[in-house]
Design goal:
The protein is α/β, with parallel strands linked by helices and 445 residues long. It has 17 helices and 12 strands. The chain starts with a helix and ends with a strand.
Length: 445
């Protein structure tokens, strides 16, 4: 107990550094190499084919290459986001192909990768093993439009969904029913081989059928569900697409399909594990740590306001949490792109979920003393920007006003990047090579 005041003093002197340490602990817990050994199957009688997609696919492939017996056959390919292929670990032989494509809006490179991945499943036997490496982002990266659907229209639908405020489950329901490879179709193509899926969860609830739109997992949603979502968010689709969905032409394989009899899924890293790792680190420094949830959803700015209410109450000694403490949460919030009233050129601002959360948090905190916060995406990319997230400090609003910035104006056009960049409060990590979604830490001293 005697060491706690000393450690607490260090945190008070540099709360920014401490919050970044918490984020780093969360990311470290989710790295593939640390989590793969416990779930790796034994080499089969036949050959082993590795297929995969997602922001962590490159690091997952390297982990398999490092751990797989050198005398056992191993081949295959994975697709990851541009710039997200990590350096190959020293001494690890190259046995798998890693290609890159666009995220969050799919491109021709992702289409080519999906076509090749599907073609690699031809000729598999019951003696073979298919090891599927799936992580967040895999849905956009593994794009193979349904028969009769063009890549251009699928891109347009995907982009409209991203701006609509639809949650990840809704977006992936639509994506599954516009695809020839998602929603369990990849597993069906691999039959009769054994299929073992190793997944890193980036979704609230850790539902494997939602992670990367579940290419190896049976789908309980239907074409009718997808159509309801498209109508709810007023997403424009062509008459051909409307007819195909209405007639259930693009229905996905269901849980009773024989294709899944030799298929299994293992979650090798989850958001909750990362939050608990951060909590453990905080407690080791003499702080109380409270994990709200790893499943928080909703509008990012509104979630920020709720967190602010909790932090303000705790800072004033009113509970529900006892200071000094860290309040942690995860999940996947959403940002609804709004028309800019503040920008005379009517341009949309820059920023992602984490930055939008920080704007909502700062606005509601109103300069509350002794409260600092960090929100960042664990893949190192907030939306489509080059930052992972942003920091909020007790003087965020004061410094913003001194710089001539209006937080309300930046919120009006979703411009978190511009606001926090001016304050030098963006968080930069570069690609982390994993993805367990949103990470939020609020420090109350």
């Amino acid at each position: 107990m005697s060491s706690k005041p000393h450690l607490h003093s260090d945190i008070q002197q540099n709360p920014r550094a401490f919050l970044r340490q918490l984020f780093d602990q969360a990311v470290q817990r989710a790295l593939p190499l640390h989590n793969t050994p416990a779930f790796l199957p034994k080499p089969p009688k036949g050959r082993t084919l590795v297929l995969g997609s997602g922001k962590a696919a490159g690091a997952m492939a390297h982990a398999v290459e490092a751990l797989w017996p050198l005398d056992a056959p191993l081949s295959g390919m994975v697709v990851t986001r541009y710039g997200h292929t990590p350096a190959r670990p020293e001494g690890v032989p190259e046995r798998l192909r890693i290609v890159e494509a666009s995220h969050p809006v799919p491109d021709a490179a992702g289409l080519a990768a999906a076509e090749e991945i599907l073609s690699l499943t031809q000729g598999l036997t019951q003696d073979d093993l298919v090891l599927c490496l799936i992580s967040g982002g895999g849905s956009a990266l593994l794009t193979l439009p349904a028969d009769g659907l063009s890549l251009a229209e699928k891109q347009a639908i995907n982009q409209a969904l991203l701006k609509s405020g639809a949650n990840i489950g809704e977006m992936n329901c639509v994506r599954k029913h516009l695809s020839r490879i998602k929603g369990g179709r990849l597993a069906a193509a691999c039959a009769p081989a054994q299929v073992v899926t190793l997944a890193i969860s980036d979704v609230p609830g850790d539902d494997p059928s939602v992670i990367a739109s579940g290419p190896t997992v049976p789908d309980v949603t239907t074409c009718a569900d997808a159509l309801q979502i498209l109508k709810r968010y007023q997403i424009d689709i062509s008459n051909d697409v409307l007819t195909a969905i209405q007639n259930s032409q693009w229905e996905s394989p269901k849980p009773n399909d024989a294709a899944f009899l030799r298929s299994s899924v293992h979650l090798i890293a989850t958001p909750q594990q990362s939050l608990l790792a951060a909590a453990s680190f905080a407690e080791s420094k003499g702080l109380r740590a409270y994990v709200l949830s790893d499943e928080l959803e909703g509008e990012s700015r509104e979630v920020g306001k709720v967190h602010a209410a909790l932090a303000r109450a705790s800072a004033k000694g009113l509970g529900p949490f006892v200071k000094p403490c860290v309040i942690l949460s995860g999940g996947e919030t959403t940002v609804t792109i709004r028309a800019s009233k503040a920008d005379s050129e009517k341009r949309e601002g820059r920023g992602g979920r984490a930055g939008e959360f920080c704007m909502g948090l700062a606005q509601a905190l109103q300069g509350q003393e002794n409260v600092w916060a960090l929100a960042a995406d664990t893949d190192g990319i907030d939306g489509i920007e080059d930052n992972a997230g942003a920091l909020v400090t007790p003087d965020t609003l004061a410094r913003g006003a001194h710089a001539g910035l209006s937080l309300d104006d930046h919120l009006a056009c979703n411009d978190a990047y511009g606001y926090f960049q001016a304050l030098n409060d963006l968080v930069f990590t570069g690609p982390t090579h994993t993805n367990v979604n949103d990470f939020r830490a609020i420090l109350v001293l």
